[in-house]
Amino acid sequence: MSKSVHGGFLESVSRNFDKAAPHSGLHKGLLAQIKACNSVYQMRFPVKIGSEYQVIEAYRVQHSHHRLPTKGGIRYSQKVNQEEVMALASLMTYKCAIVDVPFGGAKGGVAISPRDYTVSQLQKITRRYTTELIRKNFIGPGIDVPAPDYGTGSREMAWILDTYITFKGGEIDAAGCVTGKPVNQNGIQGRTEATGRGVYYGIREACSHKDDMAALGLKPGLEGKTMAIQGLGNVGYHAGVISQEEGGVKIIAVAEYEGAVYNKDGIDIKKLFKHRKKTGSILDFPGAKNMKQRKRVLEVDCDILVPAALEGQITKVNADKVKAKIIAEAANGPVTADAEEILLKKGVMVIPDMYINAGGVTVSYFEWLKNLSHMRFGRMEKRFNANKYRNLVETVERMTGKTIGAKEKDFLTKGADEVDLVRSGLEETMITAYDQIRTNFKRNKGINDLRSAAFVSALKKIGSDYESLGIFP
């Protein structure tokens, strides 16, 4: 993808900001400060790959320092450039504000394709990138906290942590320098599924309002609704599995790098994932038809479309062909500003990325808190609550003279594990944030889309932070 296309991504974010800004009630000087990227670190460093040295291009952008640390993922992609990372960092600022996570926004990018390197070579690149961040004071539990993004995962985060500890030996909160780590290396249960689960909670909440669904010609609730997913990576996979198992959604189409498959009667995402792992492709999945072009999944007739791949997938070129009634932006920036104008005229509900995919940063916040407290969630209260519930059930049994089965008693008296608390906190966060966005949407007649309503929610919170610092009157 060319630089101009990524420049279009930054331009789309800027246009969406400008569209919402007049409804925030903040003055122009403050809005200009909120919009600007505070720090951009562009780097080039050599890494020995085989017998050759390669010069690696990489970035770290800290969009806003209104709250510290700054927070944002690191992506590995040949398409990475400065404009893309700036756009993603700015979205992180607004995303954190929307879900009331006390971070400023940041983002990192390394311009490589992970497919082109061995595990050992990727480790070299990751450690060298981390070293550059340490040298410039662009990483630390109170400064800037990276996380996984496209092309990276818990493995890379473990390398980052180990490199940081090597340089910062003895720093008591060192584990909080990065999130998305393996659970056995100071990570948190529920982080891997977090973004996908957040997507599910967000869609479920949007579909719970009877009048909003009636305007789309749909019934409230998720049960029986059809869904198409673009991207079967970490986010798309978990959003699909959880939507099927907990929401009763029927997934009829899935697209990945190698192509797309369709089955009007539904596709089992877990089985599709196993098929891809076995064959190397989602194509030729039993019972499904191969689609000639992978991007045709965006045009499938369905209730909910979940673009969970990369930015700029729905543009003014193909927006008119989209048949979905709801688009949930599981990826960052999959719908361009031009495309959204076309979709809104068609009456499509677009649930914006800065809200719907905020599950990752929300659970990263929980992981960061865990690292600073040096104790897993649930350790203090799990057994206390379990014993209290058991005493309550046994008291009811004595008073009524009746008993319940062992399985039912275990269910009623179970204390919360870490993953239970993480999921509960994420669910509460997504429900509360959507309620705030929807309230802005309903009460402000000048706002005609959920993205602008989400921006207003974010801008008001960020503006309040700046004003409380006395920087702006």
Describe the 3D structure:
By secondary structure, this protein is of the alpha/beta class. Among the domains are: 37-185, Leucine Dehydrogenase, chain A, domain 1 (Rossmann fold); 194-356, Rossmann fold (3-Layer(aba) Sandwich). It is built from 16 helices and twelve strands. The longest helix is centred in the C-terminal third of the chain and has 26 residues, at 418-443. The two termini are 43 Å apart.
Salient structural properties:
disordered N terminus, alpha/beta, 15% strand, 16 helices, 473 residues, seven-stranded mixed sheet, Rossmann fold
Sum this structure up briefly.
This protein has 16 helices and twelve strands. With 473 residues, the protein is an alpha/beta fold.
Provide the residue-averaged pLDDT. Answer: 93
Sheet-strand content, in percent, reads 5-15%
How does the overall form come out from the CA principal axes? globular
**CATH domain class name of the domain at 194-356:** Alpha Beta
Question: What's the arrangement of strands in the largest beta sheet?
Answer: 9-8-7-6-10-11-12
What's the layout of helices and strands?
Layout: H1 3-20, H2 28-35, E1 39-49, E2 52-62, E3 70-76, H3 82-98, E4 104-110, H4 119-135, E5 144-148, H5 154-167, H6 194-206, H7 210-215, E6 226-230, H8 234-247, E7 250-256, E8 259-262, H9 269-279, E9 289-291, E10 304-307, E11 326-328, H10 337-345, E12 349-351, H11 353-356, H12 359-373, H13 382-400, H14 406-413, H15 418-443, H16 450-468
Parallel strand pairs: 3-4, 3-5, 6-7, 6-10, 10-11, 11-12
Antiparallel strand pairs: 1-2, 2-4, 7-8, 8-9
Helix pairs in contact: 1-3, 1-16, 3-16, 4-5, 6-8, 6-12, 6-15, 12-15, 13-14, 15-16
